[in-house]
Design goal:
Helix content is 50%, strand content 0%. The chain is mostly helical and 114 residues long.
Length: 114
C-alpha cells in the first residue's frame, strides 16, 4: 500500500502543499495559498501550505487536518483509504472527488488489500 495516496485517492506526492513542504519552497507556498484562497473563497495564507500527506505522520494543511470530510469519515470507519469502504461506489462525498479526478478511483482500487 502506498502511504502517499490520500484517503480520497488523490496522490499527495503531486500536491503543491506537499511539494512546497518537502522542498521548503516559499514561492510555491505563496502561489498555492493564493490559488486555494481564490478557489475556496477563504483566507488561506502561505504559512498554511505545509503538509507531509494526509495518511502519514507530520504536519498537514488546516483543511486536511481538521476540515476534510473524507479524512474524518475514513478515520471514523477505520479504513486505510476509501478504497476499503463498502460504500465507495455510492458515497456522494468521495464521488465529488472521483468525478473531477478519475485517477483517484484507480489509486483507491490499487490500495485495496485483499
Amino acid at each position: 500500500m502506498k502511504d502517499m495516496i490520500g484517503y480520497c485517492g488523490l496522490d499527495c506526492e503531486k500536491c503543491d502543499a506537499h511539494i512546497a513542504t518537502i522542498n521548503d519552497d516559499q514561492y510555491l507556498r505563496e502561489k498555492t495559498a493564493e490559488l486555494w484562497a481564490k478557489l475556496n473563497n477563504a483566507p488561506i495564507l502561505p504559512e498554511h501550505i505545509n503538509c507531509n500527506g494526509c495518511r502519514v505522520d507530520g504536519v498537514k494543511t488546516v483543511f486536511c487536518e481538521s476540515l476534510c470530510e473524507i479524512r474524518k469519515c475514513a478515520l471514523k470507519r477505520g479504513v486505510s483509504t476509501c478504497g476499503g469502504c463498502p460504500d465507495l461506489n455510492t458515497c456522494p462525498t468521495i464521488g465529488a472527488i472521483i468525478s473531477i479526478n478519475p485517477s483517484a478511483m484507480e489509486n483507491l482500487k490499487e490500495q485495496v488489500v485483499v
